[in-house]
Amino acid sequence: MDTPSPSSSSSSSPFDLVSSALGEYIPRGGAAAAAGDPGARGETTARVRVHPNPAAGLQEQILGAVNLDRELRITRSNLDAPVFAGLDVVTGSPFVDLLPPWDVPTVTRRLRQVLETGEAHVARVQRLRRADGSELVVSMSILSAAAPQEGLTVSLIAMARRLHLYAAETAIGTSLDIGETAQSLAESLLAWGDVAAIDLDFAVWTGEGVTEHGQGRIRLRRAALVPDRVWPEGYVTEGDDLPKDASHLLSQAIRRDDAAQAIVIPDRESIERVLGGPKLVRALVPSDRSAGVACIPLVLDGSPPVVLGVAEVWRRADRPFNDGELLDLQELVARTSHHVDLARQHQREHTQVLALQRRLLPRTGGDTVETASVYQPATPDSAGVGGDWVNSFPLPDGRTALVVGDVVGHGLGAAATMGQLSMEARALLSAGLAPDEVLEHLDKTVTMLDDAESGLAAGYSALGSTCCIAVYDPVSHRVALSSAGHLPPILVLPDGRAAPLAVRPHPGLGAEFALREPFGVHTFAAPPGSLLALYTDGLVEDPAVPIDEGIGRLADAVSTLHPWDVLEEAARWVVSGLSPQRGRDDVTLLLARMIGYRKGDTATWRLPARDDAAARARTLVSALLREWRTRDDTRDRVLLLVSELVTNAVRFARGPITVRLIRAGHGLLCEVGDTGNGRPRLGRGELLDDGGRGLHVVHRLTARWGVRWTDTGKVVWAVVAR
Fold first, then answer.
1. How much is the mean pLDDT over the chain?
2. Deepest in the core among 161, 265, 507, 596, taking most CB within 10 A?
3. Higher-confidence residue: 201 or 371?
4. Per-residue pLDDT tens digits for 411-422
5. Rg of the chain on CA atoms, in Å
6. What residues form DSSP beta bridges with 407?
7. Cβ-count burial 205-214 (b if 16+ within 10 Å, e if not)
8. Would you say residue 683 has pLDDT above 60?
9. SS (H, E, C) 557-623
């Protein structure tokens, strides 16, 4: 160690100030003595504090210093205190080699910030990595080196026991992922031993409700194991289930008189006697050397208490656990057991929301649209699975609906709202409402869900949720689209040109009354071979770039898709290329490739609303059905159906009448449009009641029928099986 004497010309540097202060704590043979300065040695000896327990005196030696150059390499150090033993401090090596890998970026940034600004960074709780893989918790301060030297001085104060417990609990509580929570606990426990393992009840892993188990019935799975190294064959490592006998023994060991207790097995002979066989020894004991183990239960407070699992700390037999260490272990595990249970509850909620969202994913887009969707949930340690939802489904009248939405918030509240809005949108679209009318209903639903009783009182608000609805007509090859605050879909034309649609922005669902405005309908052509991409913001949002640039990246990606590409594989490729590796928001993408009907499978006629319209329609339809070689009985039913629908249109509506016949799958779809806005209803007509008789005929002739509204009136459609 290069430790200057107090008479050095650079004694005013922060490094030397810290080094001189070590005389208050380091006994004879410490840093000053090692420097070879008799005066310093004498001063240090005079200042040694005498403790009744020598070991306690060693624990008081907690101050050290490291000097760094501008490349953040170690130029000299003063870490002779026993508490720093095991730190591999080598002159000329990077300081970050002393850090856990995950802390390197943050600490490097802070070191360079002090270099550039000269402003000290004081008292950061930090972990240092010893050569054997264990860690030391310190309070780290970063100061600029005094002139004429350049670089930094890093002072390190080894954390006292209470601070170590606090720092460990703080680190453990930063994640809602079960595996990461267990890993953080194991890494903290490693300060007391050579190997630490966390074994959790299987119910914790699955998110199920943990109940009181009968003695010996607990089933354990290894959640974490440190240090990370190659273990011998047969040893239980992370993700493995413990042997049934091992789970039984551990659960018996930690439960005495129906109370969960910590136990210590001090040596290998006792361990082998308890485990009772070489198979269990090979599965649980991490070394062939003599070892002892402390087993501390993770207990959830209650009446009676519930055991979530067990933490095991192994150490060499020549380092037995003392009572103080066992109390520290119990305190740390007790403090952090609730974090494990919070992770379990989060896992259960995460699983439930995922199941709901998976169920809402589209199964098929119908015969006229090819669809593929990708749903990528947020990472488990985020606030929870969000409210993204996507759906595509054929409407009864032959059109196809494409819907994507993003409900505000995360977790079960967002999932419940998501499910309600998704089902409501599907029902309204199937009933024939236009996309803008559906959004009006969803807007009212979100507002009602947010009232004082059912919304805010439950601690959840869906105000500001977004939704985009597109309805594709496979005959006209046009799409009607409405959006409530959602990002614009991207249309890729058959020639490869791709661009976001110019959809008029809207404030979203449930906006304040002053911000509300009518939902617009954007209608555009989508020729066969066109590709429509609907998505949620998790796919294109990046804090480092503007949102328009993210949308542009998506447009570039989908424009490269070939018409022959398998759509499901193409969707996964797009998401993998654009979505962040550990996203904090759900990612959803729906691709729809427009196919439509072939020209020879459809026919449309426009007739004046006159008394002879029904006869004219029968003549035109009959000729087409012969061309299509339709069976006689089917042709008779279709002609009767057309006659009834056209007659009703002439009788109750004004303006021209449109008749459209579509050959689709296993049926014939007949549509009759008019300019009336009345809703045809199937009532209980009496024998001599002429009103509504036509609809009874339609009902008996068809597999299904319905009504949809247009800008100029309505269309009555009906399907006849072929």
1. 77
2. 596
3. 371
4. 667 777 887 888
5. 37
6. 387
7. bebeebeeee
8. no
9. HHHCCCCCCCHHHHHHHHHHHHCCCCCCCCEEEEEEEECCCCHHHEEEEEECCCCCHHHHHHHHHHH
Strand, coil or helix: 415: helix
User: Dihedral (C-alpha) 315, 320, 322, 326: value to the nearest 10 degrees?
Assistant: 30
Q: Given its phi and psi angles, is residue 530 left (phi above 0), alpha (psi -120 to 50 degrees) or beta?
A: beta
Q: Which of 117-131, 155-169, 511-525 has the lowest mean pLDDT?
A: 155-169
In terms of Cβ atoms closer than 10 Å to its own Cβ (0-12, 13-18, 19+), residue 498 is buried
- Condensed to tens digits (0 to 9), the pLDDT of residues 212-265 reads 444 445 678 888 898 877 788 888 888 888 887 777 666 665 665 555 677 888
CA distance linking residue 182 with residue 238, whole number of Å: 10
Distance CA 288, CA 704 (A): 75
Closest by CA position to 645, among listed 709, 683, 693, 703? 693
- Report the percentage of the chain scoring pLDDT > 70: 74
3-state secondary structure (DSSP) of residue 180: helix
Query: In sequence order, which residues have a C-beta less than 8 Å from that of residue 430 and are 6 or more positions away?
Result: 395, 396
Instruction: From residue 96, give the alpha-carbon distance in Å to each of 73, 104, 114, 270, 603.
Output: 8, 6, 15, 42, 75
What does the alpha-carbon distance between residue 39 and residue 472 come to, in Å, rounded to a whole number? 91
Considering 197-206, 504-513, 653-662, the range whose residues carry the highest mean pLDDT is 653-662
Task: Tell me whether residue 587 is exposed, middle or buried, using C-beta atoms within 10 angstroms of its C-beta: 0 to 12, 13 to 18, 19 or more.
Answer: buried
Per the listing, tokens 């890993």 go with 183
Residue 349: both structure tokens together: 């909620």
The whole-angstrom separation of Cα 40 and Cα 706 is 99
Burial state string for 261-300 with b = 16 or more CB within 10 A and e = fewer than 16? ebbbbeebeebeebbeeeebbbbbbbeeeebbbbbbbbbb
Strands 220-226 and 255-256: unpaired
Residues forming a β-bridge with 473: 478
> Using an 8 Å Cβ cutoff, are 232 and 282 in contact?
yes
pLDDT in tens, 103-134: 788 889 889 989 988 888 877 767 788 887 77
b/e 333-348 (16+ beta carbons within 10 angstroms → b): bebbbebbbebbebbb
528 token code pair: 């066969």
Distance CA 83, CA 697 (A): 93
Interatomic CA distance for residues 582 and 152, integer angstroms:
34
The CA-atom distances, in angstroms, between 17 and each of 3, 63, 78, 427 are 11, 12, 11, 76
